[in-house]
Amino acid sequence: MRKLLPLLFLLTFTSSIWSQEMELYTQFNGNFDYTAIGNTLNLEENENAENCDILTSSSAILSLDPGQQVEAAYLYWAGSGTGDFEILVNNQPVSSQREFSLLVNNLDFFAAFADITSLVQSEGNGAYTISDLDLLSFINPLHCNGGVNYGGWSILIVYEDLTLPSNQVNLYDGFELVGTFQNNILEFQLDNLNVIDTQGAKIGFLAWEGDASLAEGEQLKLNGNVLSNALNPPHNAFNGTNSFTGATDLYNMDLDVYEVENFINIGDTSATIELTSFADYVMVNSVVTVFNSTLPDPAVTIDAIVTACNSREISVEYTIDNFSGTDILPSGTLVTFFADDQLLEEVFTPNDLAVGASESFQLNLNIPSSISNSFTLEVKVNLDTQENTIISEIDPSNNTTSLAINLGNVFIASPPLDLEVCDDASNDGVEIFDFSENTNLAIGNQQNATATYYTSFANAEDDIDPITNPDNFENTDNPQEIFIKIQSSTDPDCFAIASFFLRIYQTPIAGFPDDLFSCDEGEMDGISFFDLTENTSLIGNNQQNVSIDYYLTQADAETDSNPISNSNNYQNTNNPQTIYAVIYNSNYESCKDIVSFQLSVKEIPVTEIKGDLKCDTGFDANDFDLSEVTQQISLSSDQEITGYFLSLADANSFENPINAPFSYQNTENPQRIFVRVDSNLPDICSHIYFFDISTQHCEPFIPEGFSPNGDGINDTFFITGLYDIFEKFQLQIFNRYGNLIYKGNNMVEAWDGTSNKGLNNVGKDLPTGTYFYILDLKDPEFGPYKGWVYLNR
User: 369, 370, 243: which is closest to 311 by C-alpha?
Assistant: First the structure.
């Protein structure tokens, strides 16, 4: 019968197969062979199974002969579904290191790999149990219905046996399928072979899912030749058997080996595997070939390295051997030389090397300046730039050797620095110096180099009288030259000398500055301008080679940050305000002293004095002699009145003085006058006084008569202030009969003896006589006034 997919599978058939091709995983050359153990998890062939039951563990026995030593052990496990990659081997946890997968018409299958060499070497012969391999959650009804539910494991063991001939053991792995509707033939190439003898040649397979009951068109071929043996008929190669144990119940997995000496030829470097199946699924997981093979085994050793002082050329003595080879090492084998992974030289061996032979060589190499004095020299034989062997050999692990090299040359890595310090308070030119910084600079990253200090070049050259306390040295001169000698600790005759100076700079001592003050002129806001440099000479105190800067804070002064840029015209921000002055040694600004002084803005005194009050001469104004008012100010001999002003700001800033203070007519009523008093003594601020001048309405003068005769004298009844002081007045004039003959106000001219009232008298000159008046000033302080006035013509 044919392995059939479920109906749903057929309806959703997508012709999709996703797998990994077989490739060489690793190769062993020498006295090696291999064996394999393993077991299935299936309880019976899945083709005949009535349910999906499957085990989670199974066991197998490893039984190596005495003298067979485990070289490598590789565990493969596989099954239906997406996979379980955390299992136990003899109760020890193992995780997959590589994983394989197949996707066949929407069904998943997996395989996993782990290198368990150390575990098998430790456990040795005996039972191996694979457990905690749980596939129940991965296998679904489609796997079961299609008869493709399986699980199992195998350990491939490569072992060394010195009684064996020299063999080449190649392990290929992947995950490839044959047996689907569209993939009945599987063919792949085994490369990297080196067949020198066909005797004992064999090839082994680890495959999954084969069924003994399905054998339709199933064949396994090598180079076109059908493979078979007692367990594996020509038409049913993958039938659940184990060639190592003879077992036929390895359900749905095959662990088989075939003798193939008749199907390969001496000199073959590759072989073709072909598998066909028209009914059964077969999934190939690994292939192992064992062919008799003799190969060289080139190895390299460094015998000696010769270096010279202050030279970057080295002489390398090295040996190429073929001690462990089973064939000659041909001439022309590549040998490469590296310094810290940088290629220096390529050479080729001149002669064939017989098995067990060696040949020594000498090569001079120039080490580039880009390589440090201490480096690793590496010599490689028979390896290309990708670290792959060029000619086939037994053991590539001995193709490389290395040696740490320290060139005998030394040099001044970086020039030493002059060491400069500030003198202490004594300013005696003597200080303590620590040369450690220059030690680090001069040595740099050189290895096997030491630093020694001397007070003369001759002493440095001859190693005479070195300085014994370079981290606590007291100078004897100022300045003083010190010589540093960098010397190879492996070659005392290899050295370099450089020098530096010790310099001590005098620390200036700040003089005592004056506190600066300013009068609070202008807006009287406590802000003024100061010339800080007034203190420069005091702080400098006649010291030479000094400079002085000014700062707003102690921190800025200490760190030389944010010096005041306009020190000769600085406007304070606080009142009072502390300013910090730093005096530097101009030749070495680290030598400095800090002193402070205060800026203060003095308040201008403002004092009120008694003002002046006069009668209103019109429009609330009068003429005032301001100097009369200020006579009450008591002036000292150094003081004088310097001006009269209409505002405090003008008085304080000495702007817009009153031009005629001796005859000043007020413009407001009342009006405040400010008087500035200055002293001719230094550092004395002005004093400002103020007083008010004002006018008041005084009682008017009413004449008893007037003469409107046109002579310009008393031509009208003129009452003082009537029009410009008592502007709302009303005046009535009556004749002796009590008749109203004149009515006046601020809009009517003064009475000139003419009538402006009455039916028959308007505009008529009135005769000489006495007239009665009533004057209402409309001022609560005065009147009304009534009286007689005589009109005289």
Answer: 369
Mean local confidence (pLDDT), 316-340: 94
- Sheet with 58-62, strands from edge to edge, namely 58-62, 126-131, 86-89, 92-95
Residues 366 and 232 in one domain: no
By the 8 A CB rule, do 213 and 248 touch? no
Same domain, residue pair 107 and 240: yes
**Number of domains forming the structure of the chain:** 5
Closest CA to 115 of 151, 89, 81, 80: 89
Residue 9 pLDDT grade (very low, low, confident, very high; cuts 50, 70, 90):
very low
Question: Buried b vs exposed e over 398-423: b needs ≥16 C-beta within 10 Å?
Answer: bbbbeeebbbbbbbbbeebeebbbbb
Q: Would the CA dihedral through 134, 136, 140, 142 be positive or negative?
A: positive
258-303 pLDDT per residue, tens: 999 999 988 888 899 898 988 788 999 999 999 987 789 999 999 9
What are the C-alpha distances in Å from 791 to residues 10, 735, 758, 766, 771? Answer: 149, 11, 18, 8, 7
Whether the pTM exceeds 0.85: the reply is no
In a domain, 743, yes or no: no
> Is residue 570 helix, strand or coil?
strand
Range of 473's domain? 419-505
- Is residue 702 exposed (0-12), middle (13-18) or buried (19+ Cβ within 10 Å)? middle
Q: How far apart are CA 439 and CA 452, in angstroms?
A: 9
* Helices vs. strands in the chain: H and E counts, helices first: 9, 50
Is 167 in contact with 293 (CB distance < 8 Å)? yes
Amino acid at 504: I
Beta-carbon contacts of 351 under 8 Å, excluding residues fewer than 6 positions away, are: 331, 359
Residue closest to 775 by CA, chosen among 740, 729, 737, 720: 729
311 and 389 in one domain?
yes
For every residue of 502-514, DSSP letters joined together read EEEEPPP----PP
H helical segments located in 481-543: 536-540
Mean pLDDT of 465-471: 96
- Give the CA angle between residues 169, 154, 26 to the nearest 5°: 30
Least confident span in 441-445, 475-479, 762-766: 762-766
> Quick one: pLDDT band at residue 248, thresholds 50, 70, 90?
very high
The predicted pLDDT at position 18 comes to 62
Q: Are 267 and 236 within 8 A, CB to CB?
A: no
Examine residue 776 and state whether it is found in any structural domain, yes or no: no
Residue 730 inside a domain? The answer is: no
pLDDT digits (tens, 9 = 90+) for 131-157: 999 998 888 888 888 888 999 999 999
Whether 128 is covered by a domain: the verdict is: yes
